[in-house]
Amino acid sequence: MHNFANRLKELREKNRLTQSALASLLEFDQSTISYNELGKKEPSIESLIKLSDFFCVSLDYLVGRTDLDVQFKRFVLEELNQLIKKIDEN
């Protein structure tokens, strides 16, 4: 399973952002992103929330507690809701 440092780098690269660009968008110091990705500095809870909101992923996904991002969970829940509606209609 991924840890936060790896997950942050993966998300940043997937979105084709440099460390400097991400830091600028989130109003962080560029060194903060670098240290986070190297595992040299743990993020504050405020930073974690900002990052998870920015990348539209859950905190659990961001810190590596799950491999399911929030978008996939929403998709599954929507599919289940539609299935339940169909069952209720019958």
TrEMBL record:
**Pfam families from the xrefs?**
HTH_3
Q: Does the keyword DNA-binding apply?
A: yes
Organism in which the protein naturally occurs: Metabacillus bambusae
For the keyword Calcium, the answer is no
SUPFAM superfamilies, alphabetized: lambda repressor-like DNA-binding domains (SSF47413)
Which UniProt keywords are given for this protein, alphabetically ordered? Answer: DNA-binding
Domain HTH cro/C1-type: residue ranges: 8-62
Q: What is this protein called?
A: Helix-turn-helix transcriptional regulator
Q: What is the lineage of its organism?
A: Bacteria, Bacillati, Bacillota, Bacilli, Bacillales
Report the InterPro entries cross-referenced here. Cro/C1-type_HTH, Lambda_DNA-bd_dom_sf
